[in-house]
Structure formats: structure tokens, C-alpha cells
Amino acid sequence: xxxxxxxxxxxxxxxxxxxxxxxxxxxxxxxxxxxxxxxxxxxxxxxxxxxxxxxxxxxxxxxxxxxxxxxxxxxxxxxxxxxxxxxxxxxxxxxxxxxxxxxxxxxxxxxxxxxxxxxxxxxxxxxxxxxxxxxxxxxxxxxxxxxxxxxxxxxxxxxxxxxxxxxxxxxxxxxxxxxxxxxxxxxxxxxxxxxxxxxxxx
Length: 202
Known about the structure:
Mean pLDDT: 92
Distance between the termini: 36 Å
Number of domains: 1
Shape: globular
CATH topology: Rossmann fold
Strand content: 25-35%
Protein name: Class I SAM-dependent methyltransferase
Keywords: Methyltransferase, Transferase
CATH superfamily: Vaccinia Virus protein VP39
Radius of gyration: 16 Å
Oligomer: single chain
CATH architecture: 3-Layer(aba) Sandwich
Number of strands: 7
GO molecular function, one term: methyltransferase activity
Organism: Candidatus Rothia avistercoris
CATH class: Alpha Beta
Domain Methyltransferase: 41-138
């Protein structure tokens, strides 16, 4: 069960500090052959681990995180990697549904396990804006939840059908689209995961 504690995400993000970079980002970066020549977005940046990785790859990075305490944590993570990265980093406190996505404004968009927390009534529009924000040749790398996930019945969680995602990607080339269903754990306890991991290029 997801916590309704208003400090839940602050506690979660603090607990994430020091973990390895998520494999999805590492895999997605392998498709980038011109590092240092673009803007990247880390949507749902948490502790900033993936933000720091994107900075190390040469991107100008904008992180977005709804937790109001996140900026200092992300800044600390970046400084531990390389203080010089800070001049290539910017940050917004916002949700996926509230962040303003300019058309074709990012060469790389990453969102790890954040988009399912965009409420269902906002998810389709937010997803459309995210896709529209990917620049020509740009990479999109995201985790999404499928309908068999144990959180699917919770009213604030968005799940998607594989066919719906595929239909939305008519302007993209799908580089990787994996589906896993398994028992596992979260910050708050055990759950059944139904996960889609997607990497696509406009």
C-alpha cells in the first residue's frame, strides 16, 4: 500500500541516496552517440542519482521532482560526483502533470518509476506532452506500470496497456520495450510488479 504521509517522498528520496544508477538509464545512454550536445530531463529525479549520471555524460540537465526538499538532496548528489556539474544543472519542483514541456525541447527524457504516480485523469495529456517534448533524434526512456500491477486498483496510480503505449509511439522508433511481471519489494513493503521499460527514439 502506498503511504499517504506527506513526508513519504522526502523519506523515500533520502533512502535512495547512494544506490546505483538504474539499469534503464545506462541502457538508454548506450544509444546516445553524441554526448555533450543536448538537453536532458530527469522527470521524478528523486535523490538525483540519474541526474548526476546524465551530467557526467555531457548533457545540460533539468531535474523535476515534486518533493519540495529535493533540490538540496539532488545538489548534494551532484556535488559528490563533480561540483563543476552544477553549472550545467537546473531544477523545478513540479509534478509530471504540472511541468511545462516545450515542444522538442529535450534531447533525452528519462523517468524511472515516476510516471505511474501521475493521476489517471492527467496521465494521457501528460504523456502526450512528454512525447512532444522529445526533440528529433532524441531519446525517451521510461518505466510504466501495467494493469496487473498490485497498485493498479489505487485511484491515484496510472497503469497502461502495452498496445496503448505502442499506438502512442507512431513518431518514434522503439529501441527497447520489455515487460516483466514478478513479486518484489518496495520502500513500503512487498508487492506484485507489472512493469514496462521503454526506450524509444524520435
